[in-house]
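Notebook, p. 212. Picked up where the previous page left off. The plan for this session was modest: take the two constructs that came back from the sequencing core last week, fold each one, and keep the raw output in the notebook itself so nobody has to go hunting through shared drives later. Recording the first one now, exactly as returned: residue sequence, then the structure token string.
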Amino acid sequence: MRILTYVLSFTAAILLMACTGGSSKKDIAESPHYWPPMEIDTTKLLGQEFFSDIHKNNLGRYVFANEIIDREWQDERKFVTAYDMSKMDEVPLFSRLFINYNTGPAEIFKRFSVNPGIRRNAHLRYDYFVDSLQAEKDYNYKTTREELGWESVRYPVFEPSVFPKEKGEKPIISRQQARICEALLKHQGYIKSKKDKTILLGLRYSLADGSSAGGWRDKRTLSLAQGQILMTNVDEGLEWISKIPNYKVPEPFERDKKLEKEALKLMQNHARNNGWKEKFKKAIITSDKRAKRNKFSGILEGYTRTFALVGKWPDGSYTIQYFNTFQSPEGPLNHYGNGEQHLIWGGAVDL
């Protein structure tokens, strides 16, 4: 049996290349969090056709570049193993993975699943790692025939187009970019503790058997490809992520220190009484007060208003959650309902 590990000369070369095309100061293989290349048994490939030498030489791996990696890509010199996150607004980062069996997940599912005849049970799972930490998971149970036929997949890691050029603009961010941003935001406490402000971002692409036992986190999986890239200046990268509308701290509608203090105390008590894990640190007024009247008599009952509360979690991450409040003309502020919650970078908040 012939086993190939594909730790070839070109692989050693690209390990020394940075996102600008120059020499990297770190070989990612020296990191204690480094994943050795996936071993490939060429006798078990389900397809023998390759659309390039790069495809043939990178089965079971991810490759990265600062431009879209087309199927016809031939220039190994443009692959990168490091990315400077301080330049997120200028320099993009793209990835492409090559499935280890050299065929689409549908064919692999026929040999992997307990019930291979039910195609709707062929699911895909994306896992994201910050160094050795499992940072985020994305389970896709609504796979299409097209997705299940791809022996190679490309997607953006970071694109400058996610940053708004005008006030109020909300550019579209891809699902994969969003999950990577959330993985970093969830582990901002860990990132803050690292003196060199670098991490290995790990990506893993797996086939999941939807007919196997357990919830989606426990479904039987088979890894099809994995890879890592060195992210430098991650603290500056988090600052850039905080400018993406999905993860931005809202601007206050108005400033009223007394009202902000009252809202913060209200929600701190509410969180404590309900056993919530986060500790609220700041309240932001995000709307004007709105009159609430009796729908039959029209008599004024009070006013509603929306606040955004900054919460700090035990793991060092931060979130923003919106809450509605109600206040009668002579009464105190009361909790009136929960709204959307999303991750933010703690450094973007003046606490």
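Okay, moving on. Second construct, recorded in the same format:
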Amino acid sequence: MKLRSRSRRIMVAALAVAAISGPMRAAAANFGPGSISADLTTFSIPRPPGFRAFATFTGPLNERINTGTPLAGGGTWMAVRGNWLITANSARNACQSNEARLTVDTGRVDVDVTDVLTLNPEVAGKAAGVLVRGLPDGSALAVMYRDTGGGSLNLERLGVGGTMASIDSLGPIASATIRVIAAGDSIRVWLNGTEVISYTLSGADRTTFTSPSTTTVGLISDHDRSTRHDDFRVEAL
């Protein structure tokens, strides 16, 4: 009886290994550059619990996005500066010619953030973009599109000032999908699916913008008619 029970356990263990090993090899073959997911129909790799949320800004016209308005998936918005309204299934800054920020605290320093900007070509001097690594005092890193000087996409320090990296001569842009991955001292930026900035923080920037308090991300816009934000997504890494 003991021998039969032991044989049964060995057979079950062998079948379990065989069932897993095939899908595991298939999943590994599906990884792309920077990917951390697999073909979920065959095998999924457990991921550590983290923050994940998104906002498509659907709602009644001119509905206000207030501090405390929830995002889908988790977290709540903080209208740090300005007033934000829903317009045409997007979020816009309702403050005339004043910088507005709409942020969410992820509780994590390393994040992957995406936002879709729609830019009004009739408004000159506009600037808008995405915040990462925000601090309680308002300092943050920002990826900003600015249409001055031929149009540029900049990695900037907010609060302490200065441009860290820039892609110039982009010209007028009607729509832009901006993605930012901040992981450790690495800041990588994509514009419409193409990686355009890869920057490594060092010195004082590294000290400031990798501290445990840099957990805020969000949207920034400087004019109520210049830009709209849509399909905002953030995932903690």
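Notes on construct two before I forget. The CA atoms of residues 68 and 178 lie 25 Å apart.
Flagging for discussion at group meeting.
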